Amino acid sequence: MIQKKICLLGPSGVGKTSLVKQFVEGIFSEKYLTTIGVKIDKKVIDLTIEQVQLMIWDLEGIDRYCGFQPKYLRGASAYAIITDQTRSQSLVEGMEIHRMVREISDIPAILVVNKSDLDVAWHWTENELNGYSKEFVRSFSTSAKTGAQVEEMFKFIAQLTLK
Amino acid sequence: MANNPDAKNVPDDEAAMRELRDIILGKNRQHVKQVLKDNAREIVGDVVIEAIHDRQKLNQEFTTVLTPVVQQSVEKSVKNQSEQFVGYLYPLVGRLVRKSVTAFLSEFVEKTNEVIENSLTFKGITWRIKAWQSGVSFSQYVASQTFVFKVEQVLLIHRETGILLNSVSQSVSDSTDGDLISAMLTAINDFVSDSFGSQKNTSEQNLEVIKTEDFSLVIKRGPQLLLVAAVTGNIPQNISTKFQITNEYIHKLYAKEIANFNGDTVVFEPAAQQLSDCLVAELRPEAQKQRKPILAIGLFTLLILGFSFLGLKSYQHNQFLEQVSDIAHQPGIIVSNIEKSGWQNIKLEIMRDPEAISVEDWMSSQQLDTTKISLSEKQYLSLEAPLVKNRLNKLLKQFPEVSIDWQNEIPTLSGVLPNVQRLSLAREINAIPGLPYAEELLSGVVTKELDTISDDSPEILMALFEINSAKIDSTQIEFAQGQSELSNEAKDQLLTLSSTLKATIELAKKLELNVGLIIMGASDSTGSKQFNQALSQKRAFAARQYLIEQGIEPEYLNAIGLGVIEIKATGAGLRKVIFNVIDFKNE
């Protein structure tokens, strides 16, 4: 079976961990996130042609006080920048993280706008958002709470890693 | 050119040489290559075996490379020609099965020994407690105590992605979630190298060993691969080196696969062979020595003793049961149920003839312990010959005059008995079940007459007395009309009467009775009343006189004349003397 490493990155509090929580099988407690800054889970995605086992590296939320560990990105086949549509700042920070990653890697990336179950509360317009999205292969609007688009998002990443 | 050698000519020479070489060897050594190509088969064919041999001798790489190829060939072969393979294998299978069964058995015995050794020795128990105290499983503790070291699991990890390429382990259960552990291990290594790496030193800091009290992860780093061995105990340097060499070797062997790695781990499956070579262990010297499982031996001995004791008890119990069962052979005893109860007791239900031997007596005679028996008994009548004999013998004790003679179990009675007793004996014999022929039996018993009876039981005396009285009372003597003379016939009657009367008087004496005979004379109505009165009296006196003459004392005799008896009938019937014996108790 093909195994691929992917990374989830984003500012604190956008719901990265919630996104994978109900979706994956894991053995490690979430305290690893704060201890070493990463928690790893796995999920077998059944694409019609073949199965892919995603090793999902859920990186600790990145904010102005805490940088990110570039080594955790090594060997990743794709990554996702997670933002939160209730906070304008999350997209700014997400784009900043994206640029930081781009400095060391050119692997495909997707943009995930989380918390789609809540009302849009940022001031980005559709156009602005589309502008940012151009830097990504694709963007998703997900809800960790309802599960909307979560599976589709991971499936897309899995397909992405095979290209 | 040879005559004018100078510096300028040197390049020319080289060019000429090149030209010459090209002519001889062909452009880009075409000629030689062509020749080699044409003869490649022969050239390689000549040395191929030797080459393989030399290479194999040098290191084991040839086997390693060849193994997957052979495996695949065999697999394909078996798949395509399964029929033939069945044919080849058929004769071997029986032997194989036997061999594997033998192997299984010996392994089983060995394992059992191991279990006994580890569980039933003092050391085993101590270990168990210690394992419990330190919170590890017993098997892990045993491993840590038994082995100097033991490589439990080996992981081969792609360094960059942290993806697990392959893993082998001593036991199947340990190999779970190796992929997550691999990734996490990579992350931890990154974390450590980042956190503790010095800023100035550009070389990366890397984890080499992660160690707990009795468990360590030995990490061997190659350019692209990590080889991680999970080891219990202290690993010696040479084994650590072996891991490193294995890792290097895998790098070499799978260089192409590593370079083209795209997440597909299938290509690394054959590496399991190299990894398995790393699953080594070394026993502690003392563990190699045979320990004597003293506790086990003790326990075993106790068990055997216990079983022997139980066996003996059971044997004795059975013996006892068998001995008691023999009571069924006793006449007049039927065993309706006999069973063991408890450890040593026996429950016995029997039917017993009252004449038969009692259970207690029988058991005492057999020297059996009567306290171990719980007995319930019902009575019945047995027709068995010995009991019939007993009954008859017992009966005859009441008749001492009768003797009994047994021949072939057939009794013959003989003796003399008064009739009454003979009758009662006959009745008793008839009452004995199984002896229906009382009369035949009694044929030898002679009846004795009553008059010479010496038996003076009052009942018999009384009976005789009454019989005699009745005889006397029924006597009547008759007279001719108007006469008081005794006829001859009358005299005969009186003679008999007198002897009966004598016996009666004797009996009365014995019975202490007073007795008297009233002699009553009567006449018919012919003639005057006075005459008849006188006549009747004369007749009574005549009879009295005659009896006195026969020796009867007069005081027993009282003669009276009744005169005419006023009855309608007349004639001879009334010219009589009648008698009546009266008796009364002494005052």
From TrEMBL, chain A:
GO terms for molecular function: GTP binding; GTPase activity. InterPro entries: P-loop_NTPase, Small_GTP-bd, Small_GTPase. Keywords: Nucleotide-binding. It comes from the Bacteria. This is Small GTP-binding protein. It comes from Aliiglaciecola lipolytica E3.
From TrEMBL, chain B:
GO terms for cellular component: membrane. Keywords: Membrane, Transmembrane, Transmembrane helix. It comes from the Bacteria. Residues 466-587 form the OmpA-like domain. InterPro entries: Bact_OuterMem_StrucFunc, OmpA-like, OmpA-like_sf. SUPFAM superfamilies: OmpA-like. The chain crosses the membrane at residues 294-312. This is OmpA-like domain-containing protein. It comes from Aliiglaciecola lipolytica E3. The lineage of its organism: Bacteria, Pseudomonadati, Pseudomonadota, Gammaproteobacteria, Alteromonadales.
